[in-house]
Design goal:
Strand order of the largest sheet: 5-19-20-3-21-22
Distance between the termini: 42 Å
Protein name: UvrABC system protein A
Main location: cytoplasm
CATH superfamily of the largest domain: P-loop containing nucleotide triphosphate hydrolases
CATH class of the largest domain: Alpha Beta
Pfam families: UvrA_DNA-bind (PF17755), UvrA_inter (PF17760)
Family: Belongs to the ABC transporter superfamily. UvrA family.
Keywords: ATP-binding, Cytoplasm, DNA damage, DNA excision, DNA repair, DNA-binding, Excision nuclease, Metal-binding, Nucleotide-binding, Repeat, Zinc, Zinc-finger
Number of strands: 33
Strand content: 15-25%
Oligomer: single chain
Largest sheet: 6 strands, mixed
Length: about 900
Amino acid sequence: MTKSTNNHVIHIEGARHHNLKDLTLDIPRDQLVVVCGPSGSGKSTLAFDIVYAEGQRRYVESLSAYARQFLPQMDKPDVDKVEGLSPAISLEQQTATRNPRSTVGTVTEVYDFLRVFFARLGKFYCPECGKPIEAQTTDAIVETILAKDPGTKFMILAPLVEHQKGTHKDLFAKLRKEGFVRVRIGGTMYTLDDTPELEKNKKHTIELVVDRLVIKDGIKKRLADSVELALELGEERMIVSVVGGENPGDTFMSTLSTCPSCKISMPRLTPQLFSFNSPQGACQTCNGIGSVEYFEPDLISPNKGLSLNDGGVIPWKSAYRQEQFAPQLKKLGKEYGFTLDTPLGEYSEKAWNALFHGCSKTHWQGIVPILEYGQQQSGVWDHWTARFQQSRPCPSCHGARLRPEALAVRVADKNMFEFVSMSIQRALDWLNDLEFTGQETLISEPLLKELTHKLGFMVNVGLEYLSLGRNMGTLSGGESQRIRLASQLGSGLVGVTYVLDEPSIGLHPRDNERLINTLRSLQSRGNTVLVVEHDEPTILEADHVIEIGPSSGWLGGEIVFQGPVKKLLKSDTLTGKYLRGDMFIAPPETRRKATDHITLRKVETNNLKDLDVDIPLGLMTCVTGVSGSGKSSLVMDSLYKHMQLYNGNKANNPGKIGGIDGLDKVEKVISIDQTPIGRTPRSNPATYTKIFDEIRKIFSGSKEARTRGYQPGRFSFNVKGGRCEACKGDGQIRVEMHFLPDVYVTCETCKGKRYNAQTLEVEYKGKNIADVLDMTVRQAREFFANHPPLMRKLDVLAQVGLEYIQLGQPATTLSGGEAQRIKISRELGKRNLPGALYILDEPTTGLHMHEVGKLIRVLHALVEKGATVIVIEHNTDVINASDHVIDLGPGGGEHGGRIVASGTPEEIIANPDSATGQFLK
């Protein structure tokens, strides 16, 4: 392509970054451009590493040298020229944050406006009696008193001591000195000259009589002075005590927010009161996290067949000598009818509770209190005992995160927690129905405008079923990306290049149209929207398509098509063939029939509505339904977490179920998700799949290695000996940037090869160990063709479509879909899998239509080996290839949570109520 002089394009020349093969191309600006092609072909390299990273790098370079020294030096992509760049914003599919304090509301910044909304428009309601509490001005108090009937006799009192021990002699002496005459002690009136001697250890209430008055003309000034003095002495609180007449008694008044009946004082209404991240607002029990950790007896003693003497209590195996407690335990056993040799499963319920929670009669503390005490004493112990703990909603705030005073504030009928617990759609409807009067109308206008705007954008991107209080850690990659997309819609920027990574992930086909409309609204404002996507409807909606291929890894990196969709549909590329229907994924000819089930009873997790669900064993089951219908609640929170508990493993906040049958038929449950296979560059496909163990054996068996006496450990970059000691086998050195992310630079000693010179001298068939780590799976299969055990593992990686990845590719550079397929390959490498249950959440993420076919074959291969596979998926090809489908709905959030249809894909298609069935047709 010749050099472009067009101002309406981003012109890229000579792009050789990663696997790109010297590409030169023009990307049209101000259009919706889709980059497609097989996974690993170079789509993300073009979109993120060149267009986005170069835009960012140039921005950093435009800053002063002083400012640049505080920012990491961004790597310059390997490209000759990039012209026509505008500021770039990247919306990647980051795996959801692990910070327990991050919620949908805080990430979208809606919560900041909500805090001001409740602080400025909320009213306190007493937590005890539920009556409204309002602070009054001094003038308002005076007017309230003057409104009493003429002739009413009353006293103005200042509360000085409330339920406090002591004789209070100094206080009485001080009051006499200041010229006061009367006090009321415990409801009885005394002059200050004849106050009784108070008992030192009893609690007393003392109120000072500031003035005695009668309602009549001309008392306003004296009354105002007395009220001011009473409020000053009573620290903004006072009592009006009517004497005689029809309504004698006390009225509590205050310029603070204090309940007149219950005397409960409220703090000043500020936005900080509603922040669970500040001491003013956070619940004091859970510190604003909403959940607390507790010791779970079933994790402390998972094997009920063991006795105390057999090691039935796991923490005592390694941390405590059981002999220390033997005398007390024998005493406890006599009381409850067990010995130290009785299996824990035979204990009565009372004996079990006494063992774990203590018994005052025998002076036994209990296993849980002993562990809690040890945890308080030692940080190391604390870390070790975390494995025996579960988390559950905080007993004080019940998951609301806020202190009682914050929850006592309401706008109309809702407090902050009730508002953030509603679905976004319902919250939006509720805000639109609010009506304010007078001064509140002016205050509410800008706040309501901002809140309805932000919530409206979230509805536009298909997230109306989420709630603002939802923890970000529970969202899918697609959901968290669409949340950031919604906040960009609100920013109203123009002239920006937005780079998105598969925004359709987690969206049911029914909701795709709204996402496309959102991308269109960004583009129509005058922005370039560059989307890396495999989704057919999104590709078909694009103004311009760039297909990179023809295959993955080093077989990709070329532009196989560029132009409008009409031309793509006539092209001979892989995507063109699938869009035209020349190539397609055929459904299996027969469906397997189940002989056994796991049954979940009365499931009420999140939005699920008292479901009874049969999950067939030995089949591939697909759980589907519109976004927010309850798929993850059913499969992950209810089934997976309760299976983990059954197997004695930790599972935080398991779902609410009535019971579960058939778990004895499952030997192990494995969740294969898209989290990285490792958190550091040391982890790679070769180490994770154990391929590297075989390779090191081959190298240690070479003639040179045997001569030098090198064992397999010599060829590991994780241990001393063969590795480069300058970088400790990392191949790069971390440079700490203090308050900025760390920067990694290539090690100068080994030039990134990870090994020392002596180790690299050992070769096998002309290649050293570093050369082998640089090989792709395809190259390694040719190179190690004579090693059957190694070939078996390499063949499985090829089977899942990962021929193109390098054996030593750092785990941190793998996409979510690649990480998931590496995990599947490790399981496929096992010979037989009866009793194994695999759960996969959206495994088609990052896969081209062609690779989805490979994935389906791989999942069926797991089932052929005797395993059960449960897939949460929206992809119609995967649903069509399943033996059994459970379709949830009919809507999302509170409109979902029911089973709409269940059976084979054919039965789902025949069900008119199923939204999924309509798309399967």
